[in-house]
Amino acid sequence: MSFKNECAIITGASRGIGRATALGLAAKGSYISIFDINEQGARQTASLIEDNFGQKVFVKKVDISKQEQVNQAVRETEEKFGNIHLLVNNAAIVNTTPFSEISLDEWQKVLDINLTGAFYCIKAVLPYMIKERKGKIVNVASIAAKVGGGLFGNVSYAVSKAGLVCLTKGVAKEMASYGINVNAIAPSATDTEMIKDFTGPKREAFIQSLPMGRVASPEEMASAIIFLLSDEASYITGEIMDVNGGLYMD
Ligand SMILES: NC(=O)c1ccc[n+]([C@@H]2O[C@H](COP(=O)([O-])OP(=O)(O)OC[C@H]3O[C@@H](n4cnc5c(N)ncnc54)[C@H](O)[C@@H]3O)[C@@H](O)[C@H]2O)c1
Fold first, then answer.
1. pLDDT tens string 112-153
2. CATH numbers and ranges of domains, the chain
3. What is the pLDDT of residue 67?
4. Which residues line the pocket of ligand 1, CB cutoff 6 A?
5. What is the best residue among 9, 11, 14, 17 to mutate for testing ligand 1's pocket, by most ligand atoms within 8 Å of CB?
């Protein structure tokens, strides 16, 4: 599996699954462009890549819920690397406010970042991919999309991820004839900052209920993402790949 001379935009790669994906792709030769609201963390990821793989990285402070910021960062990425063949829509926030208490502003913020942010990124990269008739997009959804949330994320989080699932399938259909594959992964609990508050007996009970008896590592999510970005996945599109250790099967 090689990504030599390919450029991958990864949103939310200042830490967690995004950082693991950036490191994994850079190890296989890809140029990396990181869009993240946390510029300091993104620069740390870039340093790790440069120190370990000597690979070129572009870091841009971007709030993905702001379309002009996304468009500008995509333009700058293309200017720097000359192509955009790969996009990972990974950045997201979790929200734990119960549905009965959530305000419209809070609801809207989750959808703006988790769903519309991915919409902006896809819209911005597609012209480059269509021109070259080459592209792979992976959206990071969640098991929450299939079960309605409830574990960490509430309804707003689950709805945003269910939207991402439909966005994946719809764009996959429309783009298949242009040589562009669009897929998603649906992770369950993964050991990152996002679930740092999920502790104590509730976490223990949850882990006991997992067929594999443990949560996932960010690298295990990155492996699935990198496979879907690779030529090995050339005939896969519109797929929502469960990466959940057997927790939920459909
Ligand atoms: N960790 C889990 O258990 C789990 C489970 C299922 C799905 N997921 C999904 O995996 C993806 C990565 O999650 P993670 O666990 O690594 O989370 P994380 O919280 O560690 O990382 C999220 C990243 O997104 C960035 N980000 C947040 N808001 C942003 C914005 N408006 N603009 C740009 N960047 C922004 C953050 O700075 C951070 O780098 C997310 O889509 C998440 O919903 C995670």
1. 999 999 999 999 999 999 999 999 999 999 999 999 987 767
2. 7-243 (3.40.50.720)
3. 98
4. 11-12, 14-18, 36-38, 41, 62-65, 90-93, 113, 140, 142, 187, 189-190, 192-195
5. 17
CA of 36 to the centre of ligand 1 (A): 10
Question: Residue 56 has what pLDDT?
Answer: 87
Residue-averaged pLDDT of the chain: 96
Mean predicted confidence (pLDDT) in 241-249: 95
> Which residues are identified as catalytic?
157
- What's the gap in Å between 194 CA and the centre of ligand 1? 7
Q: How would you label 205-238 residue by residue, b for 16+ Cβ within 10 Å and e otherwise?
A: ebeeebeeeebbebbbbbbbbbbbbbeebeeebb
Q: Give 244 Cα–ligand 1 centroid separation in angstroms.
A: 17
3-class DSSP state for residue 50? helix
Rounded to two decimals, what is the model's pTM? 0.98
